[in-house]
Amino acid sequence: MLSNKLWLSGQTIHSSHADVINQSFFIFLSAGAGGWSPLVSDRYQWLEVDLGERTKITAVATQGRYGSSDWLTYYLLMFSDTGHNWKQYRQEDSIGSFPGNSNADSVVQHKLQQPAIARFLRLIPLDWNPSGRIGLRLETYGCPYTSDVVSFDGGSSSGLVFRSPVSRRTSRDVVTLKFKTLRNSGTLLRAEGRDGLGFSLELEKGKLLLLKQGRTSASEPRRLASLGSLLDDQHWHHVAVERRSSHLNLTVDKHTERVQIPAEFSHWDVEQLSVGAVQGFSSQKSLVSKRNFQGCLENLLYNGHNLIELARNNDHQVTGNVTFSCAEPVSVAVTFTGPQSFLQLPGATASSSGGVSLGFQFRTWNKAGLLLTFDLPQQGGVVWLYLSEARLRLQIHKGGRALLELTAGAALNDGQWHSVEMNSKRGRLTVAVDKEEGGSAQASPLFPVAIESHLFFGGRPAEDTSHECRNPFNVFQGCMRLLTLENQNMDLIMVQQKQLGNYSNLQIDMCGIIDRCSPSRCEHGGRCSQSWTVFHCNCSDSGYSGATCHSSVYEQSCEAYKHNGNTSGHFYIDVDGSGPIKPQLVYCNMTEENTWMVMQHNNTELTRVRPSPGVKQHLVHFDYSSREEQLSVAISQSEHCEQELSYHCRKSRLLNTPEGSPFSWWLGGPGSGRIQTYWGGAHPGSQQCSCGLQGDCVDPQHYCNCDADRMEWTEDSGLLTHKESLPVRSLVLGDVQRPGSEAAYRVGPLRCRGDKNFWNAAFFDKETSYLHFPTFHGELSADISFLFKTTASSGVFLENLGIKDFIRIELSSSTQVLFSFDVGNGPLEVLVESRDPLNDNRWHRVRAERNIKEASLRLDDLPVATQEAPTDGHFHLQLNSQLFIGGTASRQKGFRGCIRSLQLNGVTLDLEERAKITPGVQPGCPGHCSSYGSLCQNQGRCVERTNGFHCDCSLSAYTGVFCQTEVSASFKPGSSVSYTFKEPYELSRNSSALPSSIYSDMTLRGENVSLSFRTNQSPALLLYVSSYYREHLALLVNKNGEQDVRLLFEGHTQNTEKKNMHTNAIITVHFRHIFSTFSLIVFVSPESGDLDPDLARLASLGFAGCLSVVQFNTISPLKAALLHPDTSPVVISGPLVQSNCGSAGSANPYAEENTHHLSGMKWTSQLGLRDITIVVLHSVQLTGTTKRCTFVCHTGFLKVSLV
């Protein structure tokens, strides 16, 4: 509720032109006549109201001038305590302007989000009715404001000391105050306990620091928090410090930071509170600042005690030397807001000696900008004083060249006030920054440096376009004050009143600098930097991306990495996406059908117990590489977690009996864990081991093997799978001190599989169906991600409405996704268009983000689309309706299809649970192979699962999660693998039992044979295939290191012609027969006398080298021998060792074994009615890399390809 109205008729009114105030202006709003209208309608007009005393202003209302076409459409509000040093009022920290009227009669009222406390109010017109003039009737609302004020002069004796009663003990302390100052450093407050232990609040470069001081003066202070910025602006700032038992809350203005109290303060109490003076703290040195506080305080309260009032009443608890008023120095600043800003001052007062002496102070965030320029007398050139790379530079130009250059200072864009002095006397030119602290530069020019007529600060008029005078540097955006020329202050109020100099686009008697990095809008540790108008977040090394470092660059689970096509390895996992939990490094094991996330701790090895003398129990604590919150979320969002727990024992009991007290136990679960008295493989609370549950313990009278207390070594091992009890935090082993007792333990890493969020999906089968959830809260930053698949060409994925604001993501056409929202600045849209249709019933990923800096939209792997947000505009997204998924509140334009893994600000919405109770929506969504089937390589087959898919590698010569891992083996001369098929009559008799799809059609049209090899042996037999029809195929390397192919049909041998192998060709063999039934023998001489003598001798030598991914149609004999020897028709002879020798990474050009290639051989021969032409693709060479050999046998011909 608004307080009493403050009628302007009782106050003092000032205007930018005092003689144009219409005295009838003081009529109440809507009272009839009058209003304010200046003679000139431009942006240099203002209306000032003196309320007579400081007042709490809660609202303002405006109306146009009575009976006219004069009204304001936009305006600014300024407030001040003294009539100087104005401060612009901003809604939401960003919106500086207020909407005005649309006619002369209606009243538009604005409630101030934060009441303004001031004596003076100034209204500045920004825009008005284009068909009229500036016109205004004004009314303010508020109530009287009272306060107790005290000022400190910064001297050693200026301060207050409050001593707390000795008997007082409390776990909560509260200090609140307001302060204003022009100094950017100084000790504001200190709280001291016993032995000097305490806290202090200190200003350092305009920021308020909370520091902890140790018990001795030699101990270094420790910074606990930093809050606020630009606090040296001579405006009131609110500070509150609240101490509770375990933490501190520090508040500066509207921002609060929670700080954990160091452990040494657990029993700490305030004994003395010092305000303003450094020496009041047990004579200890200043923590940061070397100066006392200089400025004013008001309403200083400590635990309800008004310390200023106690000091005024000479209360014995408060001592000090202060002044009970606030004397404020007048410092008129000027703000350069943009490209057209400049300040022109006369230089006629310059010294007659021909020199110049000037000075000023400035503050800015920009690295570059023109500070000052003037012409030298008699066309001697132009002086430019400017910032470049945050350093001060001076150049004197004439005729297009630089006559002189000087540089001084560094890092001058830090937002602090910096002083500049320029002196030219007696032929010596000096430029100094921050006096002795910042550095200076000197030169002795051969020409006089003086001002011809005018000084220009910040820029030059646009009409001043002569070549020498044109500004070659960036415009200055920032503040200046204390401008002096020949040691005389320049009166900027006279400039404002048009009585001195000239100016354009300036804000006079105020510094409009804003710290856009305080508080920092950069999330997750992103580093904030800024210019005058914008801020930038450096997200490098943070693990997050985007304009505000909001979105994680990592996936939320190993499952997600797998479906990006990754294989086993270490990955960073961000379990809550854009949430506050940091990424963690885990191992993702993708070698099995399930994908496991493995989180290690400091000891996963089997460890012998070494008891300590005199200690009955052996305690072991496990430290995990992941933090507590990371472990907790990872466990909760996994479908299954497990951890191995084993105890190896020899006369060392474990759990005793279910009725007795256990000798040992473990602690598991969140935090430090809860005591658990069951062992791996048993149920929680059972006080049993796995053998007790299964009934096969070595002693049936006990429920653990170790409880049998035998002299023989035994063990109790198993998996802990109750997620609420994981991970294992500690082990307590109790029966380890008896003579003869020995034990060892092992706690494996925590392993979790299945991402409940990744596959959480719902199917919307109607345009009118939808799911609804509570209102989405993403006021300052919001990210939304999900996957969808559909056959429809349009539909709304998500919508949430407010009174005026909204947020929506929709499929606007079959190739377009649209992200739109409104935070009060009007609708903003971000569109991404795909070349390919999106209604192809395949999964597509959408990621949308909106923050105060920009909005972005990403679709699949297409380039991200962005739209910048207004620099000065609304940025709070205010929603109040339910969140609709798959539809809208109007039930129009609903989405038909599947939505999966929907996350808002890193939190997954449980679509499946909500779909179970919602008509028209079905939980889950099958059909993943259409999207992920391409991940299955090398003839691997995608198989659908309820939640996801897996690759079936049974018909592939490869293995692995995506059938991407080569199956290789190292052979010795005596090694062999033989794979035998059934005879023809068996095949025809029992076709239902055929071992492979190659026999599903007895009229075979062809065979495919492929392999990779590496060897340094020549000659060598690589492959031998024989049929029951006395037909053979042999692949060999001859004694010259050449590839050779031998074929035998119906007892006739085809010998190849050997030629130099330097030209590429193709081997093609035409024949009428196929290999109906085989005995396939790999890399060994067959026990048969059917071979020709040369081939038999070669086979007897065996093969030494590496063979990999051997495949005959859908049969993989080498894979069967290595991975399934007991269930496959294989015979293994000699040593056979599985290795990675066939992978590309294992190739070594300097190793003994080398890879062989086939190139350029051609043979032509005549054999009865069969014309046989053989052309070999590659010759055999020693290169050190694996090559692929592929044979394709078709009806009537054999094709051999070696790649």
TrEMBL record:
Entry's Gene Ontology cellular component terms: membrane
Topology term for the membrane: Single-pass type I membrane protein
Keywords: Disulfide bond, EGF-like domain, Membrane, Repeat, Signal, Transmembrane, Transmembrane helix
Disulfide bonds: C898-C925
Domain Fibrinogen C-terminal: residue ranges: 549-601
Residue span, EGF-like domain: 513-550, 926-964
InterPro entries: ConA-like_dom_sf, EGF, FA58C, Fibrinogen-like_C, Fibrinogen_a/b/g_C_dom, Galactose-bd-like_sf, Laminin_G, Neurexin-related_CASP
Compartment(s) of residence: Membrane
Domain F5/8 type C: 1-143
Major location category of this protein: membrane
Gene3D superfamilies: 2.60.120.1000, 2.60.120.200, Galactose-binding domain-like, Laminin
Domain Laminin G: 149-326, 332-511, 760-925
One Pfam family here: Laminin_G_2
PANTHER family (UniProt xref): CONTACTIN-ASSOCIATED PROTEIN-LIKE 4 (PTHR15036:SF40), PIKACHURIN-LIKE PROTEIN (PTHR15036)
Family in the record: Belongs to the neurexin family.
UniProt name for this protein: Contactin associated protein like 3
Taxonomic lineage of the native organism: Eukaryota, Metazoa, Chordata, Craniata, Vertebrata
